[in-house]
Write a structure and sequence with these properties.
By secondary structure, this protein is mainly α. It is elongated.
C-alpha cells in the first residue's frame, strides 16, 4: 500500500504542475490595449490558428483537471 501511495502522490504532483502551466499558457478573455493594437495586424488564418490553440489548451486543462480530481479521490481511498 505504501508504494501505491507514493505512485499516486507523484502522479498528483505532476498533474498539478501540468494544470498550472496549462492555465498560465492560456490567453485571457480580454487582451486589453495590446490586443487592440495587435488585433489589426492579425489575418483571418492567424486568428483561427490562435483560437484553435486556445481551444486545445482549454480542452487539455479540463482533462488534466478531471484526472487530478480522480487522483485525489484515489489517494484518499488508499490511505
Amino acid at each position: 500500500m505504501e508504494t501505491l501511495n507514493v505512485i499516486i502522490s507523484v502522479i498528483q504532483v505532476i498533474l498539478a504542475v501540468a494544470v498550472t502551466f496549462l492555465v498560465l499558457l492560456q490567453q485571457g478573455k480580454r487582451a486589453g490595449l495590446s490586443g487592440a493594437i495587435a488585433g489589426g495586424a492579425e489575418t483571418f488564418f492567424g486568428k483561427n490558428k490562435a483560437s484553435s490553440m486556445d481551444a486545445l489548451l482549454s480542452r487539455l486543462t479540463v482533462i488534466l483537471s478531471i484526472l487530478l480530481v480522480i487522483s485525489t479521490f484515489a489517494l484518499n481511498l488508499v490511505r
